[in-house]
Design a protein that fits this description.
The protein has about 260 residues and is an all-alpha fold. The longest helix has 16 residues. The N and C termini lie far apart (about 85 Å).
């Protein structure tokens, strides 16, 4: 009985219906990318990004160079960036001016992977894009690509209370930049400034603690409730032991404000 079961199982595994599907040939994927079905083309673009063959990268470059629908361009750009190469730069820079915001955002995310002045300048310029979603994508790209040219435009956006700018500055901040952020008191909306400083405090890689103390003191100068909330978040996220001067000072500030209300 056991032998018959084993024979039946072996036969079933050899059945065409249960056989593992053959991988799609590269030529078929490229053909679908060039087809009229945008959904199929978008899937093909994504699939090409997972292929290591140089021909797959070239097919994405060619498709983007000739022009594809917006729904195809965004995944094609993301796929292209999985294997960054210098010849991509000019094309990606061109797509930062695309009429579709999602495509512009995709191009900026891709450019963050290219350590080149062309890419960095494009990211910094995109922080002035009229679309908030694109500006947020540029801010994220500035962080990922360590784009120092983006710092001044980010401060301009922080002055407008733009959340993405505060997050980007917080992620990029070192001790020198923290001092500059603290100097923005009265120049930018208090909630935006408090949020940015609070995010710096929550960074596990920011320090030493003497620098965190300076951030706590900068928050202490902000009378808005958002500063108290940022300090409270820091206290809650930081263990009481081992003792940390920045946490102790934050506790005193929050307790004093609580007693004053």
């Amino acid at each position: 009985m056991r032998n018959r079961l084993a024979i039946c199982l072996a036969c079933a595994l050899q059945s065409p219906a249960l056989a593992a599907p053959k991988p799609t040939a590269l030529g078929e994927i490229i053909t679908a990318l060039d087809g009229v079905d945008d959904d199929a083309a978008a899937r093909s673009a994504t699939a090409l990004g997972d292929r290591p063959e140089p021909m797959a990268h070239e097919a994405l470059l060619d498709a983007l160079a000739w022009g594809v629908a917006s729904d195809v361009a965004a995944p094609a750009i993301a796929a292209l960036a999985k294997h960054p190469a210098p010849p991509d730069l000019a094309l990606l820079r061109r797509y930062t001016g695309h009429h579709d915001a999602a495509v512009r955002s995709a191009a900026l995310a891709a450019l963050a992977l290219y350590p080149d002045p062309i890419a960095r300048n494009a990211i910094a310029q995109a922080l002035r894009d009229p679309n908030a979603t694109v500006r947020a994508a540029a801010a994220q790209a500035a962080v990922k690509g360590h784009v120092k040219a983006a710092i001044d435009p980010l401060f301009a956006l922080l002055g407008l209370g733009e959340d993405s700018a505060g997050k980007a500055l917080a992620a990029m901040a070192d001790a020198e930049l923290v001092r500059r952020i603290g100097d923005q008191l009265g120049k930018v909306p208090d909630p935006a400034l408090a949020s940015c400083l609070g995010l710096i405090l929550l960074r596990p890689d920011f320090g030493p603690d003497t620098e965190r103390v300076e951030v706590v003191r900068a928050l202490a100068k902000i009378t808005d409730a958002s500063a108290t909330a940022a300090l409270t978040d820091y206290i809650n996220a930081t263990p009481a032991n081992p003792p940390r001067a920045s946490r102790a000072e934050a506790v005193k500030i929050v307790e004093a404000r609580g007693a004053a209300t």
